[in-house]
Amino acid sequence: MYEEGKGMPQDDAQAALWYRKAAEQGEARAQVELGALYLEGDGVPQDVALAREWFHKADEQGNSAAQLFLQIYYEAEIDRRAPESFPEAVAWFRKAAEKGNANAQAKLGYFYYSGYGMPQDYAQALTWWRKAAEQGNAGAQANLGYLYHEGKGVPQDYTQALTWWRKAAEHDDVGAQLKLGNAYYKGQGVPQDYPEAYFWLDLASAGKLDDLDTEQAVARIRDKVASYMTPTDLSREQERARKWFEAHQVKPQ
Q: Of 2, 96, 109, 139, which has the most beta carbons under 10 Å away?
């Protein structure tokens, strides 16, 4: 109540006092709230290390909010390339992955694939990306498709690659939509199918690709595919894409 000012003046210092009392008695929600105050410096001096300590205490009790705070924290540490934090970050992601956290499993797969903080191991990357992919993580599904396509950590298998790319594409993963469209365009792993290629390339062209050059290249390939299609097929796939954009609240290019 002190933190939100409900029924009394807002007072982060008082909120911190009461959260601390509850946190020290092992109340996970209070540990998260206290950690958040230390993270932002609200009502207490800002202390990221202390915030992390309280988040870890709540995480040990399975608190999902604490897990999210720690995930964001360690991802930020990784993004800023802080070598001193690598072992702790990798250890946390491994612990969360072993508990079944799909985002952590996907991140651990990336660590193994890239050799980040550990020896590069495509087979282990495959294992962890599969675990995350089976829980519906679109990025892991797309990455798993890539490993099958390239034969990294697993025998090359275009059919499996397409299976996982389709799952990711249906979860709005733009990279997977692009790869699926190219596969149908080239007839790689599936029979060549220009209408199907056009549909997935049209979806990809409306998504957030790496840069303007890539977006323009995808649009050019899509338009080239369109030139091989009958007007009836083209009209049908454009309508199919329009319905997809509406259902997924995507604005077509």
A: 109
- Taking the alpha carbons at both ends of the chain, their separation in whole angstroms is 47
- pTM score of the predicted model: 0.77
Rounded CA separation 145/138 (Å)? 11
pLDDT at 210: 65
Mean pLDDT per 10-residue interval, the chain, length 253 residues: 45 83 89 86 86 85 85 78 77 91 94 90 98 97 97 95 96 94 94 97 84 82 96 97 86 55
Contact between residue 119 and residue 153 where contact means Cβ atoms under 8 Å apart: no
Would you give the distance in Å from CA 53 to the centre of its chain? Answer: 25
Distance in angstroms (rounded) separating the CA atoms of residues 184 and 161: 13
Q: Are 23 and 31 in contact (CB under 8 A)?
A: yes
Residue type, 102: A
Instruction: Tell me how far apart the alpha carbons of residues 112 and 188 are, in angstroms, rounded to a whole number.
Output: 28
Residues whose CB falls within 8 Å of the CB of residue 25, separated by 6 or more in sequence, listed in order:
none
